[in-house]
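Marked as duplicate of an earlier ticket. Keeping the data here for the record.
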Amino acid sequence: MTGTEMAGTASTPPPSSTPASQPQPPSPPASSINRRRFLLASGAVAAGATGGAAAVFPRQRPAPSVRPASESTAPRPAPAARRPPRRAAPYATTTLETTARLGGRAHADTYRRLVPGPGWPVVVRGDLATGAGGRQDRRTPLACFVQFTDLHLTDVQNPLRTEFLRSRRPAAWRAQEALTVAGAVALVEQVNALGGGPYTGLAPSFVMTTGDNIDNNSAIELEWFLTLMSGGRITPNTGDPSAYEGVQNSGLPLYWHPDDAALRDLDKRRGLPRIPGFLDAAIRPVTSPGLDIPWYSTVGNHDDIPGGCLSPALGDFAVGSRKLLSVPATDAAAYAKALNSGDDPKSEVLSAILKRHAASARTVTADERRRLFTPHDYLAAHLDPVHAGAGPVGHGYTENNLDGDRMYYSFRVAENVIGISIDTTYRSGHYEGSLGTDQLRWLERTLAAHSSRSYDADGRLVRNAGADDAHVLVFSHHHSPSMTRRPDAARTEEPRHDGAEVLALLHRFPNVVAWINGHSHVNRVTPHAHATPARSFWEVNTASHLDYPHHARVIELADNGDGTVSLFATLVESAAPHRTDPDFADLSAVGLAALYRELSYNAPDLATGMKAGVHEGWAGGPGDRNVELLVTASV
């Protein structure tokens, strides 16, 4: 979003889905540019890709030989166990128990504090299959894991962030962006404290990130992400080692200046507070405990290309010393048009703007750590044993992936459950997604290897006696509506394939249970029905941890013993308390993580779209949040 994800014009967020059945309690124990689309395509950052893996992290060592991705293993799930005791307030394990919400009543120009709100009950979705009564007493737990998506760890001082697009719409820049690291550390802490899943009792066996782990495709952000997940000290500061150099102390009223008592900036006029010491606190070191469980990585457009949509040709600007903070309205409009169309793969419009206004740009401290990294660098950094954490080395990628810089793989989720992580990015500079022909064929072969019965493109039954018939979960960054068919200037020889083609392929394999993804920054659960019920599956799209409502998901899979399988998807908030310090004096790591969430809930115009304390355009309707998703068993 302050990079780019989805650009273009639209009116309102997509409507929430309508569940096929009414909410039920958890089983015991258990006109203008649309804000989302504009943000997803607004604050782009770019940097030039250079060199090999050693250029990313100087300390990097050659990765050891590891097994092929298809042979990598996740820990075997523990036997089903009774749900562990809950932690004491103010922390809650999942949103089944409590959720953050704005307190008080909405008034213009008012900053509202967060309070604990009621939890969200589970909704049983029978769109694709009907389960028998009493299944909670017979079901066999199969797997439990956690999904992170769209963390957008952000170097807010990067000279190629295009915050100036805020002049077109206030929501095009986020007041909370400087606190992404502190907020993500609190999410890691929450996962480490989860205990058993609310429906299977299984402890989560791994975390899968579904892309946009970082925001600006820069080497320093990649190091922050790998350290966050595997454990260590992070200093979320670049440029001047002792001072912040960005839009929030620029003196421009376009941006919130938390430390400035005199400036009545745009955000103070709408109620955001003065918080002395905020910027100094935002760049202080933070220590991540690292995940206690293995984690796997899926690539997103912000990981793969600068700003999620720009050309690597802009790399020299990112490591330079001039940061452009404002531009004339005509230039902002021209850049926004180029983003929305996607017809500027070399980012010539932005390059011209940056050169034309270089003299009026703010002078900042140049920093080579902001350089872009290539796909090869990204893979090699994951393979560095320094970042192994709880494992596996490579986090899904192996040395085999370095051959051709292939950023896709399969892995063992649990016994008789296979995960497939795919790369849906355009490397030439575009926020939308697609698959190349080579990867689409690899996906088909991988699905076939785990399917004794499938269907060809003409609907004819295909048998493969040697297949293991595993349940299949597919992971990607882009969701199906955001995958298009356009040429990729970085891979001109290869045709691209859109979301409809991926859906058609997945429908051919009855053991596909779900396609799990992100990118939209919205909670949305979509049934993909087929005339042959066994060929139906679910698409689970999860909101960003950067924007309201700051969610991750606990995902559990269980065989109901009645010809159906249940996929439970339960939303999780970070470990940060809902309430922030009354006087904003708590600028500890915990205090900043709580403030990170609260600022996002006070985004421009967000409160006006809330009903009963929930903005369904972002958080989703009841059938998009905590759900049991039934599908016909084919394994």
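See parent ticket for discussion. Residues 1-91 have pLDDT under 50 and may be disordered.
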